[in-house]
Amino acid sequence: MGCVTDTVEMQEQMVHVPASVENTLWGVLPIGKDQPIASVASGQTVVIDTISHEGIMPDQGADPVRYFGAKGIRRDEILDDTIAVPEYKTHREGDGSHIITGPIAVRGAKPGDVLMVSVDCLERRTHYGVISTRHGRGVMVGSQWEGDYGALCKVVESDGTEYGQMVPDGVDFHDDAALAASGYPRFALHPFLGIMGVAPDLPERPCSIPPYRFGGNIDVNDMTEGSVLFLPVQVDDAKFYVGDPHFAQGDGEVALTALEAPLRATLTLTVIPRRIANELFGECSVPFAYARGKLLVLGLDKDLDEALRHSVRRAIEMLASMFHLPERVIYLYLSAAADFDVSQAVDLVSGVHARIPLDDFVARLPGGAGGFLNRIARAMRSANG
After folding, report:
1. How far are the Cα atoms of 200, 250, 299, 304 from residue 145, in angstroms, in the given order?
2. Per residue in 182-241, pLDDT tens?
3. Cα(271)–Cα(238) distance, integer angstroms
4. Which CATH superfamily is domain 275-383 in?
5. Which Pfam families does the record cross-reference, listed alphabetically (predicted)?
6. Contact between residue 192 and residue 218 where contact means Cβ atoms under 8 Å apart
7. What span, in angstroms and rounded, lies between the C-alpha atoms of 46 and 372?
8. Residue 161: what pLDDT?
């Protein structure tokens, strides 16, 4: 895997943010009063390193060299920043698990604006990751499948496709033939960041576990390369952050974690002024996204049924505003053509996201799905004269 930049000028404009001890928070999200660790202009590209929390948590020994070493992984296969976090930071009981890189100031962003996050590239930083269930927080709590256990996964390649191969206990992690012969499943990788968000205007840093109206742990697995996330800005300069990297996740994330593993993310951050955002999308009070020709509309609530209702309600309002159609027409359309999927049901606040094919609105959106980002670009050019 690797990112390709079009020109030397683009490479020179990029800002690289390492996941150093100084640049990260453990278990909490940045807030408005936090000082940014980097600053970019609207439209600038930033390269951000992320760390997975698996293997460093206190209940795992807070020693990734020992934790992964017991699974057959050598010291030289473990990232230095992964080792440094539990060595120099203390995880407070009651905080979340995630390592957060940020905040990054996007100069000129104001509350009410929308931050457009284009996911340009996601590169693996390791060739392994971990899936786990513990803390009584999978959806099967109270059943025989509840417990504290997990599985190491190795990245393997076949016919040009990368897979996560589950590693049985007792099988040599480096023996590909033994792994293939084990009969344990493998699954295609689709890397994405579970956490992307902007800082809220709050007095205390919030827990990193639940998703919020300003982003955070939304865990929508469509947010792979080529996708775009839209976040309602809460404070000056947005103060963007990322975390919770995955190599793969199924809708629902039912056991508790997915394939958790570190990524290097190349993202372009663009501020859409409030007036333009409202004209394009209607009032933007919660995150939404675009991926592979579909509009993704999020609903969040502690109650999964209510999260679904939030997603439907926001989808009706947004599509009616975007395409100047009656809300009742949109409600019926959603029932026939849109999918509403569980993003995750294990992060204290459940998430549901609609997948709406924008080609269905080609009569009102020139170019259909392909015209969605073009409409935004035209509006921005017009606003800039």
Report:
1. 37, 18, 28, 21
2. 999 999 999 999 999 999 999 999 999 999 999 999 999 999 999 999 999 999 999 999
3. 9
4. Acetamidase/Formamidase-like domains (3.10.28.20)
5. FmdA_AmdA (PF03069)
6. no
7. 23
8. 95
Q: What is the pTM of this model?
A: 0.95
Please state the domain extents for the chain. 8-124+192-267, 275-383
CB 91 within 8 A of CB 58: yes
CA dist., res. 100 & res. 49, Å (int): 10
Task: Decide: 354 and 342 in contact? Cβ < 8 Å.
Answer: no
Backbone torsions φ then ψ of 100, nearest 5 degrees? -110, 125
> Could you tell me which of 111, 341, 335, 125 has the C-alpha nearest to residue 247?
125
3-state secondary structure 152-174: EEEEEEECCEEEEEECCCCCCCC
Other CB atoms closer than 10 Å to residue 292's CB: what's the count? Answer: 12
With residue 40 as reference, give the H or E element that holds it: strand 38-40
Q: Are 99 and 51 in contact (CB under 8 A)?
A: yes
Q: What span, in angstroms and rounded, lies between the C-alpha atoms of 196 and 252?
A: 18
Beta strand pairing status for 339-344 and 240-248? unpaired
CA trace torsion 244, 248, 253, 257 (10° rounding): -50
Strands (E) in 41-148, as ranges, are 44-49, 99-106, 114-124, 128-133
CATH no. of 8-124+192-267? 2.60.120.580
Cα angle 293-297-302, degrees, rounded to a multiple of 5: 145
For residue 3, name the pLDDT band (cuts at 50, 70, 90): low
